Automatic annotation (TrEMBL):
GO terms for molecular function: transferase activity. The lineage of its organism: Bacteria, Pseudomonadati, Pseudomonadota, Gammaproteobacteria, Alteromonadales. Residues 1-68 form the GST N-terminal domain. This is Glutathione S-transferase domain-containing protein. Transmembrane segments: none annotated. PROSITE patterns: GST_CTER, GST_NTER. CDD domains: GST_N_GTT1_like. Residues 74-157 form the GST C-terminal domain. It comes from the Bacteria.
Length: 157
């Protein structure tokens, strides 16, 4: 969704190929050949294959520096742009996945609720951090400038 939204924002042409998770298409041999993790999304650009949504966003925006969707390379905002993308990917999105799919983290049913509760505590913490950042330093994640990181936040939210 974040990659899709970025393409719309940039106004570039792209082909969107649906991988139907309900049909487990992400685990098909054809898909695993391009993304061995069996997860969406995957970008194919000029024969180059890139996976991980945050990495895809960084890569795409690097192709369009004139878009203004990445902060100046010598600014603090550039550091914050990386910081929030990596943190959302590793911490917020991971907790959201644990909350939505506790069965991926434990065997059997007995501890599912505990995994969900722990994930919920982490989500509450993360949304609290984001609430503070956006309230005190917004309107966007890095401050005054809309960046690709906001598209990632929107997707997870
Ligand atoms: N860190 C990865 C997470 C990707 C991910 O978890 N994708 C989910 C959908 S949101 C997926 O493909 N789930 C299917 C599965 O796990 O089989 C990213 O940001 O690209």
């Amino acid at each position: 969704m974040a990659t899709h939204a970025i393409f719309e924002e940039l106004g570039v042409s792209y082909e969107l190929i649906e991988i139907d998770l309900a049909k487990n298409m992400q685990k098909s041999p054809e898909y695993l050949a391009i993304n061995p993790n069996g997860k969406v999304p995957t970008l194919v650009h000029e024969g180059r294959v890139i996976y991980e949504s945050a990495a895809i966003l960084l890569y795409v925006i690097d192709q369009y520096p004139e878009s203004g969707l990445a902060p100046d390379i010598h600014s603090r905002a550039r550091g914050l742009y990386y910081q929030y993308l990596f943190w959302m990917s590793s911490t917020l999105q991971e907790a959201a996945n644990r909350w939505a799919h506790p069965e991926q983290y434990v065997s059997g049913d007995s501890n599912l609720q505990q995994v969900k509760d722990n994930a919920n505590d982490m989500l509450t913490h993360c949304w609290g951090v984001l609430e503070k950042v956006l309230t005190n330093n917004g309107p966007w994640l890095v401050g005054e400038q809309l960046t690709a990181a906001d598209f990632h936040l929107f997707m997870v939210a």
